[in-house]
Amino acid sequence: MPITVTDYLDVVSSWCFWSEPTWAELKKRYEGRVTFQWKIALMDPSGLPTSREQEQWFYRRSGMMMRSPFMLKTEWYDPSLPEWLAPNCVAEAAKDFGFTDDRVRLTLARAALREGKEIGDWNVAADTGAGVGGIDTRKLLERARSAEIEQRVRASTVEFYALQITQRPAFVIDTEIGDRAVFSGVIKLEPLTATIDSMLDDAAVYAAYKAHFGDPPAK
User: Fold this and answer.
1) What average pLDDT does the chain have?
2) What are phi and psi of 73, to 5 degrees?
3) Where do runs of H (alpha helix) occur along 67-188?
4) pLDDT for 129-145, tens place per residue?
5) Domain boundaries along the sequence of the chain
6) Which residues contact 171 (CB under 8 A, 6 or more apart)?
7) Which class in CATH covers the domain with range 3-213?
8) Residues 6 or more apart from 1 whose CB is under 8 A from it?
9) pLDDT at 206
10) Which helix (H) or strand (E) holds 61?
């Protein structure tokens, strides 16, 4: 019974950044048994700070919660932007160049949050993303600014809000029989592994039952 875990995220969200070790461990632990994918869920003004000072306050809080030995940088932050379209579209566009894994989006996140690069600038975002992927910067920028990429990013954001949740990252775990678990803003490993293990156990039972009894009667 196939199981899919979808990570809804905003590339420059600090809480999404702190969730990355959990995401990496999940992919390692369930490799070959579970399908993993990520989708963009753009933060809107209601979820964004209104000043650099406010951003620093949030970073201090989340950094303490994660017991981080370093503090995230705020030099990248631009209060005039209502959303962070450039880095998210660049990460999404990189998928069309074969980079469906986490490399490009993680590089963009680190460039902003660890190095303070002005990643809200389209050229900076494209140059950063192209460097890690060995993609032509001009081609990546052109693709990232295309109407199709923006439509994809906004469509996945609509998917996120359709779940009636607000916190990113959101881990959505689905099975082919319609079971679903949604974790909004939860980034600790234990509740996620407990749920996936339970679903994998159900999958084993379904497979055993089918081996003994076959498919259900038509009527």
Assistant:
1) 93
2) -90, 150
3) 85-94, 103-113, 122-133, 137-144, 147-162
4) 999 989 999 999 999 99
5) 3-213
6) 5, 6, 7, 8, 182, 183, 186, 192
7) alpha beta
8) 175, 176, 177, 199, 202, 203, 206, 207
9) 66
10) helix 52-65
Which tokens belong to 8? Answer: 């809804």
8 Å CB contact between 163 and 185? no
In tens, the pLDDT along 29-84 reads 999 999 999 999 999 888 888 888 999 999 999 999 999 999 999 999 998 899 99
Our CA dihedral for 60, 65, 70, 75, rounded to 10 degrees, sits at: -40
Amino acid found at 203: A
Give the tokens for residue 177: 């029989």
Between CA 158 and CA 54 the distance in angstroms is 27
Q: To which residue do tokens 């609509």 refer? A: 158
Q: How far apart are CA 122 and CA 74, in angstroms?
A: 18
pLDDT digits (tens, 9 = 90+) for 142-187: 999 999 999 999 999 999 999 999 999 999 999 988 899 999 999 9
> What span, in angstroms and rounded, lies between the C-alpha atoms of 85 and 217?
51
What is the value of pTM for the model shown? 0.93
- DSSP annotation of 136 reads -
Strands 180-184 and 170-175: antiparallel
